[in-house]
Specification:
The protein has 244 residues and is mainly alpha-helical. The protein is built from 14 helices and no strands. The chain is globular, with a radius of gyration of 19 Å.
Length: 244
C-alpha cells in the first residue's frame, strides 16, 4: 500500500511538472465554463438544465475523447521510452502496485478537473436557481465512474507502446470503437446476441441512468468491472514486458 501511495504522489507531481498539468485543465475549464455560461445566460429556466449539459452534453463527450488520451498517454509509454520501466519493476514495486498507483494518480487528476463544479453550483444559487443537488451528485458519481473506466483503457493502451502519440491515438480509437458498437450491431439485426452484447457495453446507455438522477448498482457494476478488466490487462502487459 505504501508503494502504491508513493507512485500516486510521483504521478501527481509528474502531471504538474509537465505541460499536460496546465494545458488540460485550462482547456477543460475554458470549454466547460463557456458551455455553462451559455446555458445560464439565456434565461432563468436554463439554470437547472445547465448541469445536465455540463455532465453529459455533446461537449462533455468530445472533451472526454480528447482529454483522456492526453492524460493517460504518458503514464507507462514515457517510462518505456526512457528505459526506466524495467528499473521500476525491479524495485520493491510489483506490477499491481505500479498499475494501481498510476491509475489512482490519473483519477485524482481527473477529479481535480471537476472542482469548478462547486463554483457553478454557487453561481446558480446566487442567480436564484434551485439546482437539484441529488441529481447533480448522481451525475458526478457517473462522471467519475465513466472517467475511471476511460482512464483504465488509456492506461492499458499506454502499456503496449513506448510512443505517447500512438498510445493517445490507440486510446481514442478504442473508446470510439466501444461507443459505436451499438451502431455496428444494427448491421446484424437478426443476430440477437450481437444486439445484447452491444447494448450491454454501450457506456452511453449506462451513463443515461446517472443523468436521470438515479444511482443504480447495475451501471456502477458495469463501469467498475470494465475498469478492473483493463487494469488487469495492464498488469499482465507489464508482466509480459518484464519477462522479455
Amino acid at each position: 500500500m505504501r508503494n502504491t501511495f508513493t507512485v500516486i504522489v510521483r504521478e501527481m507531481g509528474a502531471y504538474f511538472r509537465s505541460p499536460i498539468g496546465f494545458v488540460v485543465p485550462v482547456l477543460f475549464w475554458t470549454i466547460s465554463g463557456l458551455r455553462f455560461y451559455l446555458d445560464v445566460v439565456g434565461s432563468a429556466g436554463a439554470l437547472d438544465a445547465a448541469f445536465g449539459q455540463l455532465m453529459g452534453g455533446t461537449q462533455f463527450w468530445m472533451l472526454s475523447f480528447l482529454l483522456i488520451p492526453a492524460i493517460t498517454m504518458r503514464l507507462i509509454a514515457e517510462e518505456r521510452r526512457a528505459g526506466t520501466l524495467e528499473m521500476t519493476l525491479t524495485a520493491p514495486v510489483d506490477e499491481g502496485e505500479l498499475v494501481w498507483g498510476k491509475f489512482l494518480g490519473a483519477l485524482v487528476f481527473y477529479a481535480f478537473l471537476w472542482l469548478p463544479l462547486f463554483l457553478y453550483i454557487a453561481i446558480v444559487l446566487f442567480l436564484g436557481g434551485s439546482p437539484d443537488l441529488g441529481r447533480i451528485v448522481a451525475n458526478l458519481f457517473g462522471v467519475l465512474l465513466l472517467g475511471a473506466m476511460f482512464l483504465a483503457v488509456g492506461l492499458f493502451c499506454s502499456s503496449v507502446t513506448s510512443n505517447q502519440i500512438i498510445a493517445a491515438v490507440f486510446t481514442a480509437v478504442v473508446l470510439l470503437g466501444i461507443s459505436f458498437l451499438p451502431e455496428v450491431a444494427r448491421l446484424f439485426p437478426r443476430v440477437a446476441v450481437v444486439q445484447r452484447i452491444a447494448d450491454y457495453v454501450s457506456f452511453f446507455r449506462h451513463f443515461g441512468e446517472f443523468q436521470s438522477g438515479v444511482i443504480d448498482a447495475r451501471p456502477a457494476i458495469y463501469y467498475l468491472t470494465t475498469t478492473g478488466f483493463f487494469l488487469f490487462l495492464t498488469a499482465r502487459s507489464l508482466e509480459a514486458r518484464k519477462w522479455q
